[in-house]
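debug: dumping io for the single-chain case to check the tokenizer round-trip. Nothing else runs in this session.
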Amino acid sequence: MSLFELKIEILLKFPLNFQASLEPLSKLIATAMMNSSFRELHMQKGGFKHFVFSNFLKISKSKIYERGENFFLFRTINKELAFEIMKSLIGLEDRFFVVKSVGVREVRIKKVDWLISLNPVVMSFSNKEKSRYWTIWEDGDIKFLMDALHNNLVRKYEDFYKRKIDADENFIEFLELKNQKPFGMKYKNGKIFGNKFYIVPKQDEISQKLAFLALAEGLGEKNSIGFGFCKGKERVYFKVLKC
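debug: decoded output
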């Protein structure tokens, strides 16, 4: 199982609060997509875009990303998308960032022992005909949450590979909620609420495929604007690729 990971080094023009950082990063990725052969994918409403990106990975204790050099990661299972985004990002500049360099590597994952979400994971549910973000306060039904996370990954798998997967049993062996209060991330003059999880996947082949997909393109919803980015303890090997 292979994913493609870009390491994107940027110059941040001014300090940025971590709660407000995903939106400008998503706009940077959106600009790169608009300048690539994946313009139609970006314009598509609904459906899966099959990528995710991290927040900045040089972290400040003050929860402020300071002006200057930083970097973030972009992941996808779509090799062509990875290379198109890489080429479109090189030298790109906007109001917030200057892209200094972009590298790409192929990561082959043999086994996923655990997952932990670095960016908040978003799942929604309907409550009295209104869509709400899942939090322990709003819903609190852990089984619903586990089923929703599982079913979301199944749909992503079937959408990308264009084949059904026999995934009747939930891929999650163990789930721990890592926050007492939900994370509110600013986006388009509002907030999107999510949670951070520690997950141990089951060891069977289907569960491992879904755990891999969580690493490759994110856990939960709204991955194309940065939510659900995970790291894991996995058995991997990788090679650096060239354009």
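debug: round-trip ok. The mean pLDDT is 91.
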